[in-house]
Amino acid sequence: MATAALPADAIVQAETYYLPPTPRRGQTAQDWSQVPGAELLYRWVESRFGWRVQVPTASVPDDPGLYARIDDGRWVAECICGNAWVVSVLDPRFGCASCRRDWVPLIVPDDITAAEAEALALDRRFWFHPDDPRNPARPEQPEPPAEPEEPQP
Ligand SMILES: [Zn+2]
Fold first, then answer.
1. How far is the CA of 122 from the centre of ligand 1 (A)?
2. Distance between CA 104 and CA 147 in Å, rounded?
3. Distance 82 CA to ligand 1 centre (A)
4. Which of 25, 80, 81, 90 has the highest count of CB atoms within 10 angstroms of its CB?
5. What is the distance in A from the centroid of ligand 1 to the CA of 34?
6. Any domain includes 8
7. What is the signed CA dihedral for 62, 64, 65, 70, rounded to 10 degrees?
8. Rg (the chain; Cα; Å)
């Protein structure tokens, strides 16, 4: 897995968002530095909300994946269950602590630095993958028909 040093004003992602809890007096601070970026979510929901969610051990077969986008200065992806989570673009796997699905690919831009620079330079702090169906700037995309609610797995 490639790791990269992130500048201080970089877009927030899993590695900079999901941080260990501040230790109480007499406690030792937890060290999450060796936890892969995509798995930090599971540590965080346990420490933050008390959710005990197993880290997925399998991937959803043939899943096309989810697009990562920049939303208000954070890299996020939105699950099929409707929950959005801060994601790691350095560890592009997506799992969901709400519906507890197995890993699906996280589709990240070829040039992450350029995407972040674009979001920061335009002071929008928003960015969509050009192929993302949710991208509001996609040209000539007819409105898709409303989709029926899918049953939860
Ligand atoms: Zn989900």
1. 31
2. 21
3. 6
4. 90
5. 25
6. no
7. 170
8. 17
Query: 119 alpha carbon to ligand 1 midpoint, in Å?
Result: 26
Q: For the segment 89-147, what is each residue's pLDDT rounded down to a tens digit? A: 999 999 999 999 999 999 999 999 999 999 888 776 789 998 998 888 766 545 556 66
The tally of domains found in the chain comes to: 1
Q: Does 60 fall in a domain?
A: yes
| CA 7 – ligand 1 centroid, Å | 30
Distance 21 CA to ligand 1 centre (A): 24
Give domain status of residue 146, yes or no: no
Which tens digit of pLDDT belongs to each residue from 4-47?
Answer: 554 556 799 999 999 999 988 998 999 999 999 999 999 999 99
Greatest CA separation found in the chain?
60
Q: Residue 65: which domain range?
A: 14-20+33-121
> How far, in Å, from the CA of 47 to the mean position of ligand 1?
19
In a domain, 50, yes or no: yes
Task: Tell me how far the alpha carbon of residue 98 lies from the centroid of ligand 1, in angstroms.
Answer: 5
Q: Which residues contact 104 (CB under 8 A, 6 or more apart)?
A: 59, 60, 63, 65, 66, 93, 94, 95
Residue pointed to by tokens 């997925």: 56
